[in-house]
Fold this sequence. Notes:
Layout: H1 13-16, H2 33-49, H3 55-60, H4 68-73, H5 86-99, H6 101-121, H7 124-135, E1 141-144, H8 154-157, E2 161-165, E3 168-179, E4 186-193, E5 199-205, E6 211-215, E7 227-237, H9 249-284, E8 286-287, E9 290-291, H10 296-324, H11 330-354, H12 366-378, H13 383-395
Parallel strand pairs: 1-4, 2-4
Antiparallel strand pairs: 2-3, 3-7, 4-5, 6-7, 8-9
Helix pairs in contact: 2-5, 5-6, 5-9, 6-7, 6-9, 9-10, 9-11, 9-12, 10-11, 11-12, 11-13
Amino acid sequence: MTHTVSPAGGPDAAHLDGLPHVDLFDLRSRLDAAERTRLETIETHLEEHVRRQTIEPWNREEFAPELLPGLGALGLGEVFTDGSSLLFQGLAHAALARCDLSISALIGIHNELNVGTIEHLGSEAQRERWLPRMKRLESLGAFCLTEPEHGSDIAGGLETSATLEDDGWVIRGTKRWIGAGTLADVALVWARDTADDEIRCFLVPTDTPGYRATKIGNKIGLRIMQNADIVFDDVRVPQDALLPGAQSFGAANDLLRASRAWVGWQAVGAQQGLLEILRRYTLSRHQFGRPLAKLQLIQQALSHIAGNLAASIGMMSEVTRLQEEGRLEMMHAAMAKATTTRLGRESAAMGRDAMGGNGIVSDFEMAKMMNDLEAIYTYEGTYGINSLIVGRGLTGLSAFV
């Protein structure tokens, strides 16, 4: 007799007792008691109120605003600035990615690039105006750097301009692939100062005349994240819209280095999710009179996925150590981002194959995770560009020019 498993099915908690947690090296044991408890609370909430609840919004390519209050109540809108350890922050981002990479991307970019930029580069008045609501996830930001014609070469090719006139700054240009661009209350706009050619950052309320955001549709991955094309058509903001700490592109480089490291934790979480999905599925589904998990080919796939996950966990543990010591370089961050997303992509393909036909249906989650991994393999610097950053670090020679 052939048994099937429903999309929401799987072994109950008792059936999984004694099996390894997907935190394969037990990194959580290095947290203090308060952070371990907080992480467990976050994981429980995500499992009960986020994981399955993201499937239909993902299918429809729609945002899920009803999820934000619960995430805000857990402090996930300010994890980057609340004094928590870097390891806790990484594990919290992994927990988000384990349930849904779109929500993970939204929360990660919100912390690393939006809240983090205002917190570290903004004025006291800018922090007081924007951060309280943003930290509660009552307001979102949009980090506006990438442009239609400039992604990997944005440092040298950025075309959006900012011109200082008597009554303030005038911003002109276009941006592309901007996360939450249609939802945000404030845009953090990187533009080239026409007076000295330096790249600076400006806070632009999205209700400012001339700001127009259009959703990018028909994506195969990160479908809940609302990426946008944005036009700045003579957008006028006061002089104090300039972030005082963002006087050159060097400020963005520091943020992007940390952001690449964060994507590595996303890849860890996604691989934890893959292992979790496949293990539950193969323990529940029976073929040839026995659980799929008893078949050699399935155990080989599970073992391979676990190995990729273990390698990624080990790498991100060392990245966190370097961050704590203040020694993380762009080469390290690029290597971590490129390697962990490559391994995640490979594992997703294996997991999809192991689940047969059900592996291509989003209800069973593997296909959803596989498509989302395609997106994080490319964003925050493509695999190829990050590889060249590593190559430059190893040789001292740049292949970019």
